[in-house]
Specification:
The protein is an alpha/beta fold and about 550 residues long. It is built from 21 helices and 18 strands. It binds adenosine-5'-triphosphate (ATP), magnesium ion (MG) and zinc ion. Magnesium ion binds next to helix 12.
Length: about 550
């Protein structure tokens, strides 16, 4: 690292033990040698030092490398004034931090230092005096100090408390995820409740680095690593509940962003009858999972309830005479009598590797958390062809696309046709809050639009939630599933083998009685269980027709 000879490290925070009052501007500026340079350039540097680009780096870092980000050029490059030749690693850091190429322009070193100091002097005293020193934490060159600093900050009582409160509040609000997002104006906290993000709070900017460091400490992650993504977990006990929190940290433009996913291990498996499947579909699905071998797929976007459905199915099949093995990432529910294997790509235990190994354990039923790649799909097919029942999921919009996805992954259409027994497509919709529900007649044009092409439901009873304490004013509480089930009939197999386009596969499935997702949602809205908006929200990405 390049260092300026003879400079003492001077962070923007005042020397904590120093004086009762933080230094006024004149005092701070005093030590800087200031040869008079063209005034415009000096003013520009000062403006840049106080500007948003420079604020993203700590004053200490700027000083140490004698640089100042000035502007973003129209070409997209970050223009940086440098007073000394920059070390390539510093240039890399800048590129990475600002996510763009860097162009260097020369500037007098003294001017740069003066500008940095003047900007510090403008920081309001209460921020300077703050024990959090958030603005000092974005990027620092001296790793040793950084770690100690961050660790000390992360262990301060207010920070510990803030993070604990965020987690406890999330549990109280039944949130599944906590999002801590670094923005230009500080940290934004949002909870995902019933699948929808809700803004919770905006802790002051100076807490940002400390909060993120605290999460890292809790998750056993490398506190000094701020440029790469990191994943970890936190295990918590809350009275008798054991919680597993998955932590994922990603660098972003304004600092690191964190997502905490709360897995409630104590929550039991939901029975298939509790998912919201209409009785006819439930019967068909129960019939499907009783087949001796083949592949059953559940499709839908992230968080659409796929894993929950698979567990409901496995739970039905879980008997002493049946050996069930799962490969998951991560294991979300623990089920007695089932062998569950968490994948661990870090040590080479991928879905494919785990699957290959469990086949040697001679299971009857295999559940593969997700078919992400061709290799996994191929082994699943082999397993199905050799007499196993295989359950898995795919991230596709609807059931018919499950077929095309497998073909796109490189599986021969005839193998798909020979092994897949059926595909369940699904979504979750929020349910109207029972505590504040009222009957409601949506505008006729909305109904007409939503009803187009849907089965006729004689006396729809639409409801909506007015918003109350029980639903935090949202009008919704809890969720239920919306499903479409495509069975692989002989005709369907013939279509798949000849590589028919998706539209044809879909049309045949509907012709053979599959009520598509939107129709299933329409039925739930007409029954007042959910709203039309909700159905449109979760099915809007569906290709209609
Ligand atoms: N039928 C349902 N009714 C109500 N809530 C449900 C239902 N199915 C799942 N959930 C809830 O929705 C959340 C997401 O479910 P799940 O993890 O099964 O989704 P997923 O599709 O497997 O997600 P991912 O794509 O992340 O693997 C869980 O909190 C689960 O308890
Ligand atoms: Mg899942
Ligand atoms: Zn309510």
């Amino acid at each position: 690292m390049t260092r300026l000879p003879g400079r003492s490290p001077a962070g923007p925070a005042p020397a904590p033990a120093s004086e009762p009052s933080p230094g006024p501007p004149a005092q701070v500026l005093a030590p800087t040698p200031g040869p008079a340079e063209p005034p415009r350039a000096a003013a520009d540097l000062r403006a840049a030092a106080a500007g948003p680009l420079a604020q993203r780096l700590s004053a200490k870092y700027l000083e140490e490398h004698c640089l100042l980000p000035l502007a973003i050029a129209s070409s997209g490059e970050l223009v940086v004034a440098a007073g000394t030749p920059l070390d390539p690693t510093v240039i890399d850091e800048l590129c990475w931090t600002f996510e763009r190429p860097v162009r260097l322009v020369d500037a007098p070193a003294a001017e740069i230092h003066a500008a940095i100091l003047s900007a510090q002097a403008e920081v309001p005293p209460e921020v300077q005096a703050s024990d959090l020193r958030g603005s000092d934490l974005v990027v620092l060159a001296d790793e040793e100090e950084t770690i100690d600093d961050l660790r000390a900050l992360a262990n301060q009582a207010p920070v510990i408390k803030l993070v604990n409160v965020l987690i406890l509040e999330a549990l109280r609000a039944r949130a599944s995820d906590i999002h801590l997002e670094a923005g230009a104006d500080g940290l934004r906290v949002r909870y995902r409740i019933d699948g929808v993000l809700q803004e919770i709070s905006h802790p002051p900017r100076q807490y940002q680095a400390a909060v993120i460091s605290r999460v890292k400490v809790m998750a056993g992650l490398n506190i000094a690593e701020r440029r790469l993504a990191q994943d970890g977990r936190i295990r918590l006990r809350l009275s008798d509940r054991e919680l597993d929190v998955r932590v994922s940290i990603t660098p972003s433009l304004h600092g690191e962003s964190v997502v905490l996913r709360i897995l409630d291990r104590g929550a039991g498996v939901r029975d298939l009858t509790e998912l919201g499947m209409p009785s006819r579909l439930l019967e068909e699905f129960e019939h499907l999972i009783r087949q001796p071998h083949g592949i059953i797929l559940v499709t839908g976007p992230t968080g659409s309830g796929k894993t929950t459905t698979l567990y409901g199915a496995l739970d039905r099949l879980n008997q002493p005479a049946v050996k069930i093995v799962t490969v998951e990432d991560p294991v979300e529910y623990q089920v007695a009598g089932v062998t569950q294997i968490p994948v661990n790509p870090k040590i080479g235990l991928t879905f494919a590797a785990a699957l290959r190994s469990i086949l040697r354990h001679d299971p009857d039923i295999i559940m593969v958390g997700e078919m992400r790649d061709r290799e996994t799909a191929e082994i699943a097919i082999q397993a199905a062809l050799t007499g196993h029942l295989v359950f898995s999921t795919l991230h596709t919009n609807d059931a018919p696309s499950g077929v095309t996805r497998m073909v796109d992954m490189g599986i021969e259409p005839y193998l798909v046709a020979a092994t897949v027994l059926g595909i369940l497509g699904q979504r979750l919709v929020r349910m109207v809050c029972d505590s504040c529900a009222e009957d409601f007649q949506p505008p006729p044009d909305v109904v007409t639009q939503a009803a187009a092409g849907q089965p006729d439901i004689p006396k729809p009873r639409f409801r909506r939630g007015r918003g109350c304490d029980a639903c935090s004013g949202t009008g919704y509480r809890g969720r239920t599933g919306v499903y479409e089930l495509m069975r692989m009939t002989e005709e369907q197999r013939a279509l798949v083998v000849k590589h028919a386009p998706l539209a044809e596969v879909r049309a045949l499935a509907q012709g053979q009685g599959m009520a598509p997702l939107r129709a299933a949602g329409w039925a739930k809205a007409c029954a007042g269980i959910t709203t039309l908006e909700e159905v449109l929200r979760v099915t809007r990405d569906e290709v209609l027709g």
